[in-house]
Design brief:
By secondary structure, the chain is mostly beta strands. 0% of the residues lie in helices and 61% in strands. It has a ten-stranded antiparallel β-barrel with strand order 1-2-3-4-5-6-7-8-9-10. Strand 8 and strand 9 form a beta hairpin. The relative contact order is 0.21.
Length: 152
Amino acid sequence: MTTDQGFAFLDGRWTVHNRRLADFLDPGSGWEEFEGHTTGRLFWGDRAHVDEIVFPSKGFSGLTLRLYEPETGEWTLNWSNSRTGRLDPPVRGRWAEDGTGEFHGEDGYAGKHVRVRFRWSGISADTARWEQAFALDGGEWVTNWVMEFSRP
């Protein structure tokens, strides 16, 4: 996987097993697990990807817009969910030669400023893994949401 291939792997339909911390900044808060499904579509010669992910047991869904910026060689990942209808601050980054993608940004959680990291790995024709982690300024990363993608 290289930058040129971007998010082409994510095109189409996937089932998604989720593990999410009850409190995104507290590793001891306990994990909840739930299912989801997503459908994505490529645009602009594979330099843009949009998907909707649905979490039936949670009562909400999300949209992600991923855009490749030729000038910087980076991708921006932009997320919104049906509960807020708001576009969250983007994360930005790139794919490494080993096929992992790492994307960083800034956001807020529970009234606190957090650094955000998305990491994509384990990518094949039928699998992919996404992880989200937060860190307080100067603090360690807390992985708080993991999605395991598989083809239906």
